[in-house]
Amino acid sequence: MNLSNPGQIHIDEYDYALPEERIAAYPLSKRDSSKLLLYKDNTISEDVFSSLPSHLPADSLLVFNNTKVIQARMHFRKETGAQIEIFCLDPSEPHDYALIFQQTAHCAWHCLVGNLKKWKSGELHKEVSAHGVSTTLTARRTQSNGEHHVVEFSWDNPAFTFADLLEAAGELPIPPYLKRDTVEADKQTYQTVYSKIKGSVAAPTAGLHFTPEVLADLAAKGFRRAEVTLHVGAGTFKPVKSETIAEHEMHSEFISVERETIATLLRHNGKVIAVGTTSVRTLESLYYIGESLGLNPNAELQVDQWQPYQDGSNLLDKKAALQKILDYLDKNNLKRLLADTQIIIAPGYEFKIVDGIVTNFHQPKSTLLLLVSALVKGDWRQIYDYALANGFRFLSYGDSSLLMKR
After folding, report:
1. Residue 147: exposed, middle, or buried by beta-carbon count in 10 A (0-12, 13-18, 19+)?
2. pTM
3. Among 105, 146, 151, 245, whose Cα sits 20 to 30 Å from the Cα of 273?
4. Where are the domains of the chain?
């Protein structure tokens, strides 16, 4: 494996046998009663998740992704009886999550469309009722780009925002590998207890284990907390189908980070523990946004997939990169950084900000498994062999781990 050129990594090297019975179809009744695998200095042990605060390095800063999963899947029925599924992925017009949820007449989304062959043209209509009022929601497909489509939505009652429509007519999109329909309980169990900002179509599942009691224990033990927002896209489930990862295109995701969080990271001298791979991608993307602003104060606020591995990257230290972002925000009188990231973190990546991660156990041959391997310098198989041999539950509703960077 050529670590200086991660594009040459063969994804088959990140495969493992995952028996279907080890995939947790439903969560445990108590979130923090899940098993917790601990990895530090090439040593593996285990505990229960409620004991997490006892295993964190002193003076750790925990960073949580506060995104909230939206009920992004809607079903329409044509007059012919054919059912069409529209899965809202990310905003098209307006191209801003906060604004699009506030719309009261029309908006457009990038979507996946199920049973597309039955919807060649024309409009779809759906009657939506909530809180004693109703409206007719209309969907019209305007553009297609491969499997993605732009769908315009319009409705005739300004008492409804688009957020209201999704809440009333949408379905929570649980992961396809659970191989079951969404149930009412998922509306609570597939959200973190600290979720705030609507936008994800998949949960940042590492956070599902946290309870108010665990958060209170963290505070009592003096651990600091910070939050970022990365809206998880459907691409998080996209398998790597190419032989090497050079041909795999990472999905772009929207991130939002408050100025105060960036200032906290700049001041903090202890360990930074990311809760979930989404928090890792957000935090590491900050470094490359700062680096880009250092080279060009008017640079686009986005991180390309292979940017970390290019010649001329990785020249700033962490604090200098974070300071560049603060300078940019202050110059433009902004209280938060809004950006897009397509970053891929694979073996050979050198972490800039993150020292450890709280994370679940991921699918074989996935980019999430590549990220874990990068953090533990290739020890992922030892970790996963232990989890398989010791009764750990896998994937979104499964058990958790605390992995410290080697």
Report:
1. exposed
2. 0.94
3. 245
4. 6-68+188-404, 72-171
Q: Which tens digits make up the pLDDT trace of 86-128? A: 999 999 999 999 999 999 999 999 999 999 999 988 999 999 9
DSSP characters over 101-157: HH-SSEEEEEEEEETGGG-SSSEEEEEEEETTEEEEEEEEEEEEETTEEEEEEEES-
pLDDT at res. 235: 73
Mean pLDDT of 318-334: 98
Q: Which residues lie closer than 8 Å to 57 by C-beta, 6 or more apart? A: 270, 271, 273, 355, 356, 404
Q: Taking the domain 6-68+188-404, which CATH number applies?
A: 3.40.1780.10
**292 and 299 in contact (C-beta within 8 Å)?**
yes
Judged by DSSP in three states, 247 sits in helix
DSSP 263: H
| 230: exposed, middle or buried (Cβ count in 10 Å: 0-12, 13-18, 19+) | buried
Contact in structure between 406 and 377 (CB atoms under 8 Å): yes
Cis peptide, bond prior to residue 94, ω within 30 of zero? yes
At CA 388, angle to CA 380 and CA 206, rounded to 5? 65
Q: Is the dihedral of CA 62, 210, 58, 351 positive or negative?
A: negative
**Residue located via tokens 């009592």:** 220
Alpha carbons 186 and 28: distance in angstroms, whole number? 12
- Local structure of 14: helix, strand or coil: helix
Q: Where are the alpha helices (DSSP H) in 177-334?
A: 186-189, 212-220, 259-267, 277-295, 318-331
- Tracing tokens 């719309």 back to the chain, one arrives at 103
